[in-house]
Each structure stands twice: as structure tokens, then as C-alpha cells.
Amino acid sequence: MNTQVFYDENGHPMEFEVRGKFTVDDTDYVAMAPVIDLDPLIYILRVAVDEEGNEYLEGIDDDELDLVKDVYEELMKEQEE
């Protein structure tokens, strides 16, 4: 299991399992779920690159989420088969 620790706005750590990385229209995304299963949601974030070439994650708006969520769900279906 590939996990990453992120910090909320109050500095509290939260561990996420990386469920997958995928590309839509030349843009990379990461799907993650909290390791502590209090929240059954899958979070999808855009992979961006800073001036030094380092990757970081950024949030996406609802319209972009609607576009990429279907791609992610289709990928998960294919993996289950």
C-alpha cells in the first residue's frame, strides 16, 4: 500500500492511501482515500509542477472533478475485471 501523509489547516497529520495516478487530456491526477476509514470518499487532486520541476498536488473545481471522476471510475472497473 502506497501512503502519503498530508496536514490539514490546523497542522494535524492525516494518512492517505494512493489509489491510483492517471492522465486525462495530458493532465495527471492522483486518487487517494484516507487510511482511517472514517471518510469513504475518494479525493482526486491534480498533479502540478513548480518552477524547479517538483510535483505537488492541487485541488480541482467541481467541473473538472466531474470530467476526471468518470475516467477514474472506469479505470477501477477495468482493474476489478
Question: Mean of residue pLDDT?
Answer: 89
Number of helices: 1
Profile the largest sheet.
5 strands, antiparallel
The total count of strands amounts to 5
SSE order and pairing:
Blueprint: E1 3-7, E2 13-24, E3 27-34, E4 43-49, E5 55-58, H1 62-80
Antiparallel strand pairs: 1-2, 2-3, 3-4, 4-5
Explain what you see.
- This protein is an alpha+beta fold and 81 residues long.
- The protein has a five-stranded antiparallel β-sheet with strand order 1-2-3-4-5.
- It is built from one helix and five strands; from the N terminus they run E-E-E-E-E-H.
- A hairpin with a 5-residue loop joins strand 4 and strand 5.
- The longest helix is centred in the C-terminal third of the chain and has 19 residues, at 62-80.
- The chain has one helix spanning 62-80; strands at residues 3-7, 13-24, 27-34, 43-49, 55-58.
Task: Provide a compact summary of the structure.
This protein has 81 residues and is of the alpha+beta class.
Keywords:
81 residues; alpha+beta; 5-stranded antiparallel β-sheet; 23% helix; 44% strand
